[in-house]
Design a protein that fits this description.
The structure is a single chain. The protein is α/β, with parallel strands linked by helices. Helices cover 46% and strands 16% of the residues. It folds into three domains: 47 residues, Up-down Bundle (Transferase, Pyrimidine Nucleoside Phosphorylase, Chain A, domain 3), CATH 1.20.970.10; 247 residues, 3-Layer(aba) Sandwich (Pyrimidine Nucleoside Phosphorylase, Chain A, domain 2); 90 residues, Aldehyde Oxidoreductase, domain 3. It contains 17 helices and 13 strands. α4 packs across α9, α5 packs across α14 and α12 packs across α13. The longest helix has 17 residues. The radius of gyration is 22 Å and the shape is globular. The two termini are 38 Å apart. The structure holds uracil.
Length: 436
């Protein structure tokens, strides 16, 4: 086998045999296939696509390219959750303790934010002392004892994806459904999940800008899960406007705590309960979505989900008092307000621009190495469809640098649109995709 022939085969619309995909992924991981050939290959896949069988094989080869976690010593069905990334998306901070409180073991590896989209691991570091790196034994022990641990992604997981993703990023080949689907699913499979719940974001602040694209990606990932024997369900949810009101690490942790206390924004609570309910179904703990949703709602009302978060924070080196007194979480030095220049109805809150404003403040990183400021961010006051009054507060900017606050205000202003006529509210959940 040689790589030139394999590139030509895909360029001409051919379908690979499993051993050909294995040859490509092994060769790229061990360095015998150079970046320039892999770039040409990625572009051929971009244009020609892959069959579901090819995509499943690619996923398995990438999952097997490095360390794989065996979660079988932890009893119970381990259901993992993954969001394709968004702005103000603090769902994991809520869903993980929520389903753990309902008895599902959560052994979760999460990522850091990149660009305008946030990451769970950064957010958790808002708790002073919180350890995102645990040894494998500590990780397993904590899941056995507390039912919940969230750590950063192990350095040795899916090295093929790490290399290929970095290459795609600079060769205009990111937006290929088989490549995105295999990238995400290989990480979930290597992390040992028995079943997988995907939150596929769609809209201005998401990777997939249209519902058709989001549907195609969701179908592809569900199909991969089916082909490799991991039951997978995808919820397609809105990312045209930020989720909830808070954007920025410590601010989002506070909002997640409010939701876990039964006092959070309705959209965040609804999405978290929907995702959590699907996880209960996947784990075989419930058979009806409505019953699962209500069971989790009870966990918010009776304080058990909040207590589970506090237990995890304590187990990972933080002070659980911060969970019960979130105003003690680190805060920025200054707040500034953005006021409405006219009365009317909010017809648009561009999530990508608001995410970019948060990055301007220092809440996100432009490269993986950039340090971030956990205290800064934006508190929005409205959702799309709300009436606003001239002079009313549209957003509160939390900053440690007044120059950056001014830049962020301008960016947020450009993200918001106020119109005369009452406009429709934005849907939160568009679809649920499963193999059946
Ligand atoms: N997220 C991933 O992990 N991989 C992709 O290719 C795109 C988004």
């Amino acid at each position: 086998m040689n790589m030139v022939d394999l590139i030509a085969k895909k360029r001409d619309g051919g379908v690979y045999a499993p051993e050909e995909i294995a040859f490509i992924i092994r060769g790229y991981t061990d360095g015998s296939i150079p970046d320039y050939q892999m770039s040409a290959w990625a572009m051929a896949v971009f244009f020609q696509g892959m069959t579901p069988q090819e995509t499943a094989e690619l996923t398995l080869q990438m999952a097997e390219s490095g360390e794989q976690l065996d979660l079988s010593p932890i009893p119970g069905c381990k259901v993992d959750k993954h969001s394709t990334g968004g702005v103000g998306d603090k769902t994991t901070l809520i869903v993980a303790p929520l389903v753990a409180a309902a008895g599902i073991p959560v052994a979760k590896m999460s990522g850091r934010g990149l660009g305008f989209s946030g990451g769970t691991i950064d957010k958790l570091e808002s708790f002073p002392g919180f350890q995102v790196e645990l040894s494998r034994d500590q990780f397993f022990q904590q899941v056995r004892d507390a039912g919940l641990a969230i750590i950063g992604q192990s350095g040795n997981l899916t090295p093929a994806d790490k290399k290929l993703y970095a290459l795609r990023d600079v060769t205009a080949t990111v937006e290929a459904v088989p490549l995105i689907a295999s990238s995400i699913m290989s990480k979930k499979i290597a992390a040992g999940a028995d079943a997988i719940l995907l939150d596929v974001k769609v809209g201005r602040g998401a990777f997939m800008k249209t519902l058709d694209q989001a549907n195609e990606l969701a179908q592809a990932m569900v199909q991969i899960g089916h082909n490799v024997g991991r039951q997978t369900v995808a919820v397609i949810s809105d990312m045209n406007q930020p989720l909830g009101f808070a954007v920025g690490n410590a601010l989002e942790v506070k909002e997640a705590i409010a939701v876990l206390s039964g006092q959070g924004p309705r959209d965040v609570e609804d999405l978290a309960l929907t995702i959590g309910a699907h996880m209960l179904l996947l784990a075989g703990q419930e058979t009806e979505l409505e019953a699962a949703y209500q069971r989790l709602q009870t966990m918010l009302q009776n304080g058990k989900a909040l207590a589970k978060l506090a237990e995890m924070v304590q187990a990972q080196g933080g002070d659980p008092a911060f969970v019960y007194e979130p105003d003690r979480l680190p805060q920025a030095a200054y707040t500034r307000q953005l006021l409405a220049s006219r009365s009317g109805y909010l017809s648009q809150m561009d999530a990508e621009k608001i995410g970019q404003a948060a990055v301007l403040l220092g809440a996100g990183r432009v490269t993986k190495e950039t340090p971030i400021d956990l205290t800064v961010g934006i508190l929005l006051n409205n959702k799309v469809g709300d009436a606003v009054e001239k002079g009313g507060v549209l957003a509160e900017i939390h900053a440690n640098d007044l120059g950056k606050a001014e830049q962020a205000i301008k960016k947020i202003e450009s993200a918001l649109e106020i119109v005369d006529q009452s406009s429709s509210t934005q849907r939160l959940i568009y679809d649920v995709v499963s193999a059946s």
